[in-house]
Design a protein that fits this description.
By secondary structure, the protein is α/β, with parallel strands linked by helices. It folds into two domains: 73 residues, no CATH class; 270 residues, Rossmann fold (3-Layer(aba) Sandwich). The chain is built from 17 helices and nine strands. Helix 9 links the parallel strand 3 and strand 4. Helix 12 crosses helix 14. The longest helix is centred in the N-terminal third of the chain and has 19 residues.
Length: 375
């Protein structure tokens, strides 16, 4: 088995028990059987158990994904996972709050130490930024400019997190904001951050949104944004999500979708990520988004800055790692290895350009004269 794994790793320039930053150090030989038996789930669980290590997890994964080693190692054991995703709707309404409970409610202390000062939990915009704070501030401003916000407008933030965009748009652009989240911890802190501003934070599933209740009879939102939430919707609900956005948006309005995107259309996610980090999550493809908006929206702008997510994730890990002594009383060493694996393996996916980060601007009927793209 070791020879099989070694021959696969060699195609990515990785040696077993080598001295390079991306080389893998085997602590328990049972790793080989576990990886061949369970694939990525076994690899991640073995890392959490301390069966293997590498000096630079991000480089290890970037190399593996650059040569599509994960695809070469796929086997029939994934079939039940794929069949389950085909038959059942992982993003159905009854499961809407599961991601909040299992991930975003892990504790505000964790996210306060890991994220920037505004607590933005999505890709920063590093074009002219030298720090995480600056990158996230630039991203929020980029969104507001792309939406062409003006004082007095109404903005709906679907998946508002800890209220960073709600707070930023209300204080910088003088707009009326409604934000929704499925995390109790996020909602509580977001309300605190937005206290005294023209911003309302709701603990609510997107399918329950009613513009008449929020704005008054017959009124619709001037602008809608969804930042880092579409990854939790699920492929069976993409059209439903777009129908909701279309229903809530004014005919002359703009809708900005900020989402991780995949190069290939899939109906499942990585098994380890699904089990330990983002239950029921799924990364959309261009094809899947296109099918969901057909007969509804016009694409005005499509901006890919996926390489910036690598920098963002590395900054998050640096903050998390530096704060571990402060966090240690709240979590155990297994959590540390799990969270490290999550952040650095994801950084590797963006460095390998396997995953992308898209900001897409939609209108209902097309902007007369065209939409001015902003970068």
């Amino acid at each position: 088995m070791e020879n099989i794994i070694q021959s696969l790793l060699e195609t990515a320039g990785i040696k077993i028990n080598g001295e390079g930053d991306a080389d893998i150090q085997i602590k328990n030989p049972a790793l080989y059987r576990e990886v061949l038996r369970c694939g990525s789930l076994g690899l991640g669980e073995a890392y959490m158990a301390g069966w293997w290590d590498t000096p630079k997890l991000d480089q290890f994964f970037a190399r593996i994904l650059r040569v599509s080693l994960d695809e070469k190692a796929r086997n029939w054991r994934l079939l039940p996972h794929i069949l389950y995703a085909t038959i059942f709707n992982a993003g159905r309404k009854s499961k809407a709050f599961e991601i909040g409970e299992k991930h975003y409610d892990l504790g505000n202390t964790l996210f306060k130490t890991m994220l920037d000062q505004r607590m933005v939990y999505s890709c920063g915009y590093w074009k002219s930024a030298n720090s995480l704070n600056d990158a996230q501030e630039a991203k929020l401003d980029l969104i507001c400019k792309k939406l062409q916000l003006k004082p007095g407008m109404t903005l709906l933030d679907i998946g508002c997190g800890w209220g960073s965009l709600c707070q930023f748009a209300a204080e910088r652009y003088d707009v009326q904001v409604v934000g929704i989240t499925v995390s109790k911890e996020q909602a509580e802190l977001a309300r605190e951050f937005c206290r005294g501003m023209n911003a309302k934070i709701l603990l609510q599933d997107y399918r329950e949104l009613d513009a008449d209740e929020l704005l008054g009879n017959g009124k619709r939102f001037d602008r809608i944004a969804s930042v880092g939430m579409f990854e939790h919707v699920g492929y069976k609900n993409y059209k439903t999500f777009m129908k909701v956005a279309y229903r809530l948006l004014k005919d002359e309005g703009l809708f900005l979708l900020h989402t991780i995107g995949g190069n290939v259309s899939r109906i499942t996610t990585d098994r380890w990520i699904n089990k330990y980090i983002f239950p029921n999550g799924m990364i959309p493809s261009i094809k899947q988004i296109g099918a969901a908006i057909e007969m509804r929206f016009v694409i005005e702008d499509w901006h890919n800055f996926g390489a910036d997510y690598d920098k963002t994730l590395m900054a998050w890990f640096k903050n998390f790692d530096n704060a571990w002594n402060h966090l240690k009383p709240l979590y155990d060493d297994k959590f540390y290895r799990m969270w490290k694996y999550y952040l650095l393996s994801c950084a590797g996916t963006f460095r390998a350009r396997r995953n992308q980060l898209w900001q897409i601007v939609f209108s209902k009927n097309g902007i007369a004269g065209g939409y001015p793209s902003i970068r």
